[in-house]
Design goal:
Length: 174
């Protein structure tokens, strides 16, 4: 079976410059949190496109899938200073809604995306309805192009917060 992943081409020079900028932050500032802020802000166009695509899918319950789309991190993604955009399935988000009693999880997003390619008990589970890869195709340029401008803004804000904390609490603020 052929691999059905998404090919990502990133301007490594831009990310290298952003990383050098974030490395200049004082050692008290948690760099992982700064990177999470960076990716959370820059992935908004991708999240919006994915939510729109999921809402337009044929079939029942895809509004639930659209609501579950968001940015999240895992232990592995934080190790590489990154994160994921896709359907959220764990934690508080997956708890049942008080009004309807239905769970809000988007666990089935991969089955919708890959459909017949996913084998479940030896059978394909339906027609491919690519919603996440279409979102990536339409929004990835916007995510990567806005990177440097938002990195400068996040860097300045992190420095300002650090200076304020040092001024108010001294070195005990950390």
């Amino acid at each position: 079976m052929a691999s059905q992943g998404i090919s990502v081409e990133v301007d490594k020079n831009n990310l290298r410059d952003i990383n050098l900028m974030f490395q200049q932050l004082p050692k008290q500032v948690d760099k992982n949190k700064v990177w999470v802020k960076f990716w959370r802000e820059n992935s908004k166009p991708l999240q919006k496109a994915a939510k729109q695509n999921a809402a337009q899918l044929r079939g029942e319950g895809h509004d639930q899938l659209a609501k579950s789309v968001g940015f999240f991190t895992t232990k592995a993604s934080r190790k590489y200073l990154g994160g994921y955009v896709g359907p959220r399935v764990k934690g508080v988000f997956a708890k049942p809604d008080k009004k309807t009693g239905k769970g809000k999880s988007g666990f089935y997003g991969a089955w919708v995306e890959y459909g017949g390619s996913v084998k479940f008990w030896g059978k394909g589970v339906g027609k491919n309805q690519p919603w996440m890869s279409d979102a990536w195709d339409s929004a990835h340029r916007q995510v990567l192009n806005n990177g440097m401008k938002s990195a400068e803004k996040i860097f300045a804000r992190a420095l300002k917060i650090h200076e304020r904390r040092l001024k108010k609490y001294g070195t005990l603020g950390y």
